[in-house]
Automatic annotation (TrEMBL):
It comes from the Bacteria. Residues 55-237 form the ABC transmembrane type-1 domain. The chain crosses the membrane at residues 55-80, 92-115, 121-140, 218-237. This is NitT/TauT family transport system permease protein. It comes from Amycolatopsis cihanbeyliensis. Keywords: Cell membrane, Membrane, Transmembrane, Transmembrane helix, Transport.
């Protein structure tokens, strides 16, 4: 539990400095409300059904985007990693598409599929594909060629080699890509909700709170919820990874 208490101490210290800076008048409270005000507003928001619906809408879009990204990126990575010729042939288009910021595609996505939940899911899928895809391909480069040659010498088919040799070796790398994509997908979902003005979601709540009277306490409360969701997603995936791949962790530590 030591890391937990250290993280908690750091968080409390950050909030204490924030509170002191605002109370000392170094920053105007109307622009940056102190943590006590933000947390009070957050507690009030948790009791609102509409805000809970916004949270559920964002998390549901995140879950769908992650499912689609995994379903597309893992098979594609296995295919490109196992067939060098195909990997070389598609390298140009992959390297062209990968650096394009997903946020820059918002106008195009809205024109093509509209501004509903499909827009944020599509953009989140696009952004989440690349870490999973590249980690899967990278995993193939790290496989000991002797393992593949031994399996082939025993008459094992290509499909079975992928399933019994390559995939178990690549699994920790793939899961690392999934953990990285988890944060990226949440960022894209909330950003698209904020920029494109979705009907539901944390980003839409922040957008509405920042307009009109400009309730910065509500804006920061929504931001805290988004950050907390990202932390819990990453922490949950990290715990699952440690449980699933203990053998890989033990091997790394022994090395």
């Amino acid at each position: 539990m030591r890391p937990f208490y250290r993280n908690l101490a750091g968080l409390i210290g950050f909030f204490a400095i924030w509170e002191a800076v605002v109370r000392a008048g170094l920053v105007r409270e109307v622009f940056l409300p102190p943590p006590t005000v933000v947390l009070t507003s957050l507690v009030e928001l948790i009791g609102r059904e509409s805000f809970l619906r916004d949270i559920i809408a964002s998390l549901l879009a995140w879950a769908i985007a992650m499912f689609v990204a995994i379903a597309v990126a893992v098979p594609a990575g296995l295919l490109l990693g196992s067939i060098p010729g195909l990997r070389v042939a598609t390298r140009a288009i992959v390297e062209f598409l990968r650096p394009i910021p997903s946020v820059a595609l918002i106008p195009l996505v809205i024109l093509v599929i509209g501004g509903g939940p499909e827009a944020k899911i599509t953009l989140a899928v696009y952004a989440s594909l690349w870490p999973i895809l590249y980690n899967t391909i990278y995993a193939f480069d790290e496989i000991d060629p002797l393992l593949i040659d031994t399996a082939r010498s025993c008459g094992t088919s290509r499909v079975r080699i992928l399933r019994t040799v390559a995939l178990p070796h690549a699994a920790p790398f793939i899961f690392t890509g999934i953990r990285m994509s988890g944060a990226i997908a949440l960022i894209l979902v909330v950003s698209t909700e904020f920029i494109a003005g979705a009907h539901r979601g944390i980003g839409n709540f922040i957008l509405e709170a920042s307009g009109g009277a400009g309730r910065m306490d509500l804006v920061l409360a929504g931001t805290v919820v988004a950050g907390l969701a990202g932390y819990l997603i990453n922490e949950g995936l990290e715990r699952v990874g440690r449980r699933l791949f203990r053998w890989n962790t033990a091997e790394t530590e022994a090395t």
